[in-house]
Design brief:
rod-shaped, alpha+beta, 4 helices, five-stranded mixed beta barrel
Length: 143
C-alpha cells in the first residue's frame, strides 16, 4: 500500500466520487471529483499532503460556490422554445364545427381538435377564427 503514489489515490477518489454522480445525478459529486483530480495533479508535482488536501478543498468549494448558483438560475428559466401543447397556446384556429360551452371542433395546426368555448355563453360558427387559450387533455379551450 505504501508503494502507491498519492496521486493514484486521488484519482481513485475522483473515480469513487464519479459513481454517485452518475447514480444520483447530483452535480456536487462531479465538482468534488474535479477537486480530487486537481489534488492528484498537485500530488503528481510532488507537493505535500497538506497542500494536496487544501487544493482539494479549495477547488471543490470554489466549484460548488460558482457553478451551483449558475445551474440553479438556469434551472428556473422557462425554455425559450415552446413544444407540445405549450406551443399551441395562443395560436389561432378555424372553427370547423360550431363551438360553444359544451363542445365543437376546430382546425388547429393542420389537425382537427375538439374544442369548447372559454365563455360558456359564447358560441363560434363554422369558418370563424378563434384563439386557443388552454389545452385540457385533447380539448382546446378557445375565445
Amino acid at each position: 500500500m505504501n508503494d502507491i503514489d498519492a496521486w493514484v489515490w486521488w484519482l481513485v477518489g475522483a473515480a469513487a466520487l464519479g459513481i454517485p454522480l452518475v447514480v444520483t445525478a447530483m452535480p456536487e459529486f462531479g465538482m468534488l471529483a474535479v477537486g480530487a483530480i486537481a489534488a492528484a495533479a498537485v500530488a503528481g508535482l510532488g507537493s505535500g499532503l497538506v497542500i494536496q488536501v487544501l487544493t482539494f478543498v479549495v477547488v471543490s468549494v470554489a466549484l460548488i460556490a460558482v457553478v451551483r448558483p449558475i445551474a440553479a438560475r438556469h434551472g428556473r428559466q422557462r425554455p425559450q422554445l415552446a413544444t407540445g401543447i405549450d406551443a399551441l397556446k395562443g395560436k389561432q384556429a378555424v372553427v370547423t364545427e360550431r363551438v360553444d360551452g359544451s363542445g365543437g371542433r376546430i382546425k388547429l395546426a393542420g389537425e382537427i381538435w375538439s374544442a369548447r368555448s372559454l365563455d360558456t355563453d359564447r358560441a363560434y360558427d363554422v369558418g370563424q377564427e378563434v384563439d386557443v387559450v388552454e389545452i385540457e387533455g385533447a380539448t382546446a379551450i378557445v375565445i
